[in-house]
Amino acid sequence: MVTVLPLRLTGATLARRGRTLVGPIDLTLAAGGTTVVIGPNGSGKTSLLRLMHGLQRPAAGRVEWALPDASARTRQSYVFQQPVALRRSVLENLAFPLRLRGVPRARARAAAEDAARRVGLDDRLSQSAPSLSGGEMQRLALARALITDPEILFADEPCAALDGAATRRIEGMLLSAAATTRIVMATHDMGQARRLAREVIFLLHGRIHESGPADAFFDAPRTLEARAFLNGDILE
Amino acid sequence: MTRIPLLAAALSILLPIVAAAETMKMAVTTSFQNSGLAEVLVPRIAEETGVDVELIVVGTGQALRLGEAGDVDAVLVHSRAAEEAFVAAGHATHRTPFMYNDFVVLGPVADPADVTGAGTAPEAMTRIAAAEASFVSRGDDSGTHKAELALWEDAGMAPEGTWYRPVGAGMGASLNTAVGMGAYILSDRATWLNFDNKADMAILFEGDPALFNQYAYLPVNPAKGDHLKADAAGSVENWLVSATARDLIDGYRVGGEQVFTFNAEQ
Amino acid sequence: MQDLLAGLGRALHLIVTLDPELIEITLRSLGVTLTALAIACAIGLPLGGWLAVRRFRLRRAAIAALNALIGLPPVVVGLVVYLLLSRSGPLGVLGLLFTPAAMIAAQAVIITPLVASIAHQAMRDLWADYHDLLISMNATRWQRIATLLIDGRRGLLTAALAGFGRAIGEVGAVMIVGGNIEGATRVLTTAIALETGRGDFALALGLGVILIGLSLAVSVASHWALRTERRGRW
């Protein structure tokens, strides 16, 4: 199968008004599993995800997929920390990415109903999406991101604003998606990171401070800062 | 099937009238329109000459400007000096005086300036000024406004002070203002008789020949453009000086009173 | 108080008897204003959307200019349109002065900035919400615009209704360029001005009541149309 992976970042930097938000980053993202991006607030987690997904152009360096940009774009999805609900019904929200790709209305509708059933929103199909609760809205956003069967899914702290039960449901969805989809997610919840991660990227001051397999990282972090972060100490 | 006539009706409302009859535009003064005489004359003109006269009701100043620009085919105003200048400037070939009405001095029934006791129109104006009683002036360069200014000039004075209120509005709007303020005002008789909001105002002075108000018809010079309907304007002019027009104008009554007098040279 | 009651009575009488002249000027008011609104929407809605979505150097200046134009006095617009359409003006050969077309032109000029400005505000908020998502989903430019138009239709309707309200109630400009010619260019507002000038306050007020009723009917009808359209989407 032709695949977009690996994703290769070479000296990639994201800057705004002359201030570097993240980078320079050198990184290769191969197929398989879930990568969790962790780090203190302001360390550049969101910026890194947006840079990889192409929501922002690098100020310097390169972000390259194994396929040309145009076809790589169609094989990715992104879930925002604040879920974006289109001002339409739940059903129309789910069908939206398919309709953008020109999937006929009837097929898009069938797929949307199917997706709604899997995430437990099938009794809300005609409800206006902006009127959903926070947890329901994030479930909707995640289901909508997955409806196009992306090869890679970026999720930016998808549970940041959710309570325990809602978080558990999102994690369940991510775990089952991980079987077929490469996931890169940012989180500040170390428990969640341990539950989901196969690989960890620890960001500090906009740079990759330490990265590697999740088990090794959580059991025996190599750097002082990573150890302090896992202990809950404040990093300056 | 019923849709087509409905659509046609809707379209005919949107589009300018394209009736079989010829159409011409005539700028007339508010006093002519408000007197109600227009509603008597215009249908008869259409009937007898086949010319549909569309009225643009404005002040004398604007009426003459519309004629000057060639935007109307004729003007019907009442301001001799301005009309003569209009003809002299070549905007109209000639002026045809055909009827007159008269102005009256209106004021509150209590008459604080004792206008009723005045012997002449200028004296009436002098009394208002002397009493510094509120006076509403059209102030819009209209024929009525010009007639009022001529009266002040005859009285040998220039009205000034807080009692003198130029409102810059048409006859009806100015009357409404005068009624609201309990002020004196100069109005043409016909507009006043037709006016519904009289409250406690009344005619306090009338009858001085200085108050006569001559109306004239001026066909716009056809040299201003091919779009001008010189023939229609000519037919209307002939009709306005005809015996039919005389009977209609002299016979027109408002509240039982004759307000216009036909005086065209026949 | 007496005049107000008389006005209501007069309005009722005119409506109940289906006064033919009233029907004619009401239809003309609607025809002129809806045509002007269609033109204003055709220009103002895309302009508002464009200002919300595009970033360019003079964008702030353009928005400030647009908002300033909302305050343009209709009488001045009427005078300028008159001078343009006058036989002695640059567009005089068209012979449009004192026709409904001239009134449509004046109204369109008056309400286009208002429609564009309200559309811009509605689109700007929506675009802020949707921007990242639509980029992420790889929506084409046309798909982005279509999505904003569909999901922002309530805001756009508000813009159109504001434009309608301002146009249908406008009197200064249509008086100058239309001339208030009976049977040709007389509309509700100029008729009201005429009757007020004649001191017939009851009739003027009656026409005013009908004007308000008309605005209300159009507003209710368009909101209703939007809701039924929404229910029928799937």
Automatic annotation (TrEMBL), chain A:
Q: Which residues form the signal peptide?
A: none
Sequence ranges assigned to domain ABC transporter in this UniProt record: 7-230
Keyword check for Heme: no
- Which PROSITE patterns does the record associate with it? ABC_TRANSPORTER_1, ABC_TRANSPORTER_2
The EC code for this enzyme is 3.6.3.27
Gene Ontology CC: plasma membrane
At the top level of its lineage, which domain of life is listed? Bacteria
Keyword annotations:
ATP-binding, Hydrolase, Nucleotide-binding
Give yes or no: UniProt keyword Protein biosynthesis: no
- One MF term in the entry's GO annotations: ATP binding
- Name-wise, this protein is Phosphate import ATP-binding protein PstB
Record organism: Jannaschia rubra
Please name the gene that encodes this protein. Answer: pstB_1
TrEMBL record, chain B:
Indicate the secretion signal residues. 1-21
Q: Which SUPFAM superfamilies did the record assign?
A: Periplasmic binding protein-like II
**Where's the PBP domain?**
25-243
Q: Which residues form a coiled coil?
A: none
Q: Which InterPro entries match?
A: ABC-Tungstate_binding, PBP_domain
Keywords for this entry? Signal
Protein name in the entry: PBP superfamily domain protein
* Organism in which the protein naturally occurs: Jannaschia rubra
Automatic annotation (TrEMBL), chain C:
Stored SUPFAM superfamilies = MetI-like
Location of the protein in the cell: Cell membrane
Question: Could you tell me the keywords of this UniProt record?
Answer: Membrane, Transmembrane, Transmembrane helix
**One GO BP:** transmembrane transport
Membrane-spanning parts: 30-53, 65-85, 91-116, 156-181, 201-226
- InterPro entries, A to Z: ABC_perm_TupB-like (IPR049783), MetI-like (IPR000515), MetI-like_sf (IPR035906)
Q: What is this protein called?
A: Sulfate transport system permease protein CysW
Q: From which source organism is this entry?
A: Jannaschia rubra
Q: Which gene encodes it?
A: cysW_4
